Amino acid sequence: MNDVSHITAAAVRELIAFRIGEQEFCVDIMAVREIRGWTPATPLPRAPGYMKGVINLRGAVLPIIDLGARFGLNTSEPSERHVIMVAHVGGRMVGLLVDAVSDIIQLTDEAVQPTPDVASEQVKAFVKGIFAIDGRMISLIELDRIIPEPEAEAA
After folding, report:
1. 95: left (phi over 0), alpha (psi -120 to 50) or beta
2. Where would I find the H helices in 17-136?
């Protein structure tokens, strides 16, 4: 009987849901190390438009990626209402700037539906799937695709 409950528990994933504008997204909770308030970032020369710059996180240099800009969404100037999700992305720690973190969601892989074929290739590059929960449509993000490989080396 323990084996069955173990299998069921393993099939449930915990995700952190967050907002960018009016849209909701989520990432695997295991990738997120901490959530902190917005800290102004020091810009880097010749950085892509979605790179806000770097901040000092307990002595470590942490690059800050504006997820809204990375996804091609309209973004606003960061304020004290914005948050930084410190996450493990592609083998390194980065700060992901989002409007707000809304909640922690538990769901099974069966609840995730594939990204619609009408979505652009750019959208499909980031969105692993979409699920509906409590009348909300939430896109599941593949964090390892946030930083393109050549820029991952430079970051």
Report:
1. beta
2. 67-70, 121-126
The whole-angstrom distance between residue 13's C-alpha and the CA centroid of its chain comes to: 15
pLDDT tens profile 106-149: 988 888 888 877 656 666 778 889 998 888 999 999 888 887 65
Q: What are 119's two structure tokens?
A: 């979505």
Q: Which of 7, 29, 15, 8 is nearest to 129 (CA)?
A: 15
Q: Which residues of 90-109 are buried (b: 16+ CB within 10 A; e: fewer)?
A: eeeebbbbbbebbeebebee
DSSP 77: -
pTM, to two decimals: 0.84
Q: How far apart (Å, rounded) are the C-alpha atoms in residues 112 and 138?
A: 9
18, two tokens: 């967050």
**Where are any strands of DSSP class E within the chain?**
12-20, 23-28, 32-37, 51-57, 60-66, 83-89, 92-98, 100-108, 127-133, 136-141
